[in-house]
Specification:
Order of helices and strands: EHEHEEEHEHHEHEHHEHEEEHH
Oligomer: single chain
Radius of gyration: 21 Å
Strand order of the largest sheet: 3-2-1-4-5-6
């Protein structure tokens, strides 16, 4: 393979403990001839020593800005606000192609520096299916938090845990009565994770997917006590909840977890809130009478950092070994190029190209 230099950056978000490359897969990359530089990171779930042991070079956190021009910077969540010009090739979840807040500003930084964004959300096969995703664990953790809150057992602030510890809390205790739950997007990765967590909690959810959302039965939706949304749309669609629904006096729905957190997008299917929740305050009251509480945390899998990172890394590593301009990486590059062309004069990204 062509010589490749990957630079695994530190995540600046203090609650982000995941990594796109686990030490076990770093070993595989190094053995294949990849140069892998790893930044120090106090919160990363795997210690730097584990990367050093498999042949990686460890450097100071945030030093990617001075990395060689040919290095490919690999991360997960948002970049820091600087530098203003991004000159490298970057692999991470950019959230920049659907007119999200800050999308245009990020793309302008790449245009200014001549760099490239390979957005992991758009690393897809020929049929548009994502090739590396945290969706299963996002759905699992989101549904688990929703159940715990609905039962009055969720404590804050949240902290990273293991699946075993989370499952121990999910198992129904004496006196925990079953309640009507709904998973929207039940057949996707996140939906499967949500269903698994609800099953662990002793619940049998109603499962909706494309047919049910195309002809939305709003009274049936509102008749459930708990709803987990895992649907991320790329074009106009019928909102699942509206302000009118919140005020509906006969609404039984009391707890909503929005796994997708598509807040700010014109295609958001839950346009009843405008800011996400977080680990410190995971639940927000959307309406008082009847009550409706929201969980909308945009890095849910980081609450199970080891399991989520291990699965994601196993899916991403074969793709990194084939990094280039064709195939799935070519599709990634094409989407970035189109988004830059669609930039409006004020720097916003025109979301219409996603339709």
């Amino acid at each position: 393979m062509t010589e490749l230099h990957l630079w695994l950056r530190h995540e600046t978000r203090t609650t982000e403990r995941r990594t796109p490359v686990a030490p076990s897969d770093a070993r595989r990359l190094v053995a294949a001839g990849v140069t892998l530089t790893v930044e120090e990171s106090p919160q990363r779930v795997f210690p730097c020593e584990a990367y050093e042991a498999v042949g990686c070079r460890v450097v100071e956190a945030g030093s990617w800005t001075g990395a060689p021009a040919d290095a490919v910077i690999v991360g997960l969540k948002e970049l820091p606000d600087g530098p203003a010009e991004l000159r490298h090739r970057h692999i991470f979840f950019g959230h920049a192609y659907k007119a999200q807040p800050g999308a245009g500003a990020l793309l302008r930084r790449f245009v200014a520096g001549g760099g490239t964004l390979f957005d992991l959300e758009y690393l897809v096969d020929e049929d548009g299916r994502r090739l590396a995703a945290f969706g299963y664990w996002a759905g699992y953790v989101g549904a688990a938090l929703a159940v715990l809150h609905h039962r009055g057992a969720l404590t804050a602030p949240l902290r990273p845990t293991s699946k075993k510890e989370l499952d121990d809390g999910l198992h129904p205790a004496s006196g925990d009565e079953p309640f009507a739950s709904l998973v929207i997007g039940a057949l996707g990765r996140s939906g499967r994770g949500a269903r698994a967590a609800l099953a662990e909690a002793g619940l049998e959810p109603t499962c909706w997917d494309l047919p049910e959302t195309r002809a939305l039965d709003r009274p049936a939706l509102l008749a459930h006590e708990l709803m987990v949304n895992t649907v991320l749309t790329t074009g106009p669609s019928t909102p699942f909840l509206t302000g009118k629904d919140l005020a509906e006096p006969d609404r039984r729905l009391r707890t909503v977890c929005d796994v997708t957190c598509d807040v700010g997008s014109p295609y958001n299917v839950l346009p009843v809130y405008d800011t996400v929740t977080d680990w410190a305050d995971p639940v927000r009251r959307l309406h008082e009478r009847p009550a409706l509480d929201l969980i909308a945390i945009d890095n849910l899998p980081s609450l199970l950092p080891e399991e989520a990172s291990t699965d994601f890394s196993a899916a991403l590593t074969p793709l990194l070994l084939e990094f280039g301009v064709g195939g799935e990486w070519g599709r990634c590059l094409d989407r970035f190029t189109q988004a830059c062309r669609d930039l409006e004069p004020d720097g916003r990204e025109n979301g219409s190209s996603d339709a």
